[in-house]
Amino acid sequence: MALHVELVSVEREVWSGEASQVIARTTEGEIGILPGHAPLLGQLAEGYDVRIVQSGGGEIAVPVSGGFLSVTDKGVTILAETATLPGESVPA
């Protein structure tokens, strides 16, 4: 079983796909989300990466600035003010 993950910034969809785990730092502390996780809404802490462990293997660490993380029965949605994938230039 996999999680459907949507990572969206104010300007665009940054990443979308299937993951086996999402790890993020919220204002309440670090959280790991696995398939079947209870619904929640958390505020992302400043200065930390959101880590997405992809279903096919590999991990993406995405620096985010501000925003929220929502877990529902449909998956995980991360709404960030800014987010940049590794290798991308930082938007001006």
Number of strands: 7
Helix content estimate: under 10%
List the strand order in the largest sheet.
1-2-5-6-7
Distance between the termini: 38 Å
- Write the CATH homologous superfamily: F0F1 ATP synthase delta/epsilon subunit, N-terminal
CATH overall fold name: ATP Synthase, domain 1
Structural class: mainly beta
Give the strand content: over 45%
Individual helix count: 0
CATH uppermost class: Mainly Beta
Element-level helix/strand string: EEEEEEE
Q: What is the average of the pLDDT values?
A: 93
Overall domain count: 1
**Main sheet?**
5 strands, mixed, barrel
Low-confidence stretches: none
Q: What's the gyration radius in Å?
A: 12 Å
Oligomer: single chain
In short:
With 92 residues, the protein is mainly beta.
Overview of the molecule:
- The chain is mainly beta.
- The protein has a single domain, classed as Sandwich (ATP Synthase, domain 1).
- It is 0% helix and 64% strand.
- It is built from no helices and seven strands.
- It has strands spanning 3-9, 13-26, 29-33, 40-43, 49-54, 59-72, 75-83.
- It has a five-stranded mixed β-barrel.
- Strand 6 (59-72) and strand 7 (75-83) form a beta hairpin.
- The chain is globular.
- The model has no long low-confidence stretch (mean pLDDT 93).
Q: How are the SSEs placed, and which strands pair?
A:
Elements: E1 3-9, E2 13-26, E3 29-33, E4 40-43, E5 49-54, E6 59-72, E7 75-83
Parallel strand pairs: 1-7
Antiparallel strand pairs: 1-2, 2-3, 2-5, 4-6, 5-6, 6-7
Task: Describe the structure using short key phrases.
single chain, 92 residues, mainly beta, ATP Synthase, domain 1, 5-stranded mixed barrel, 7 strands, globular
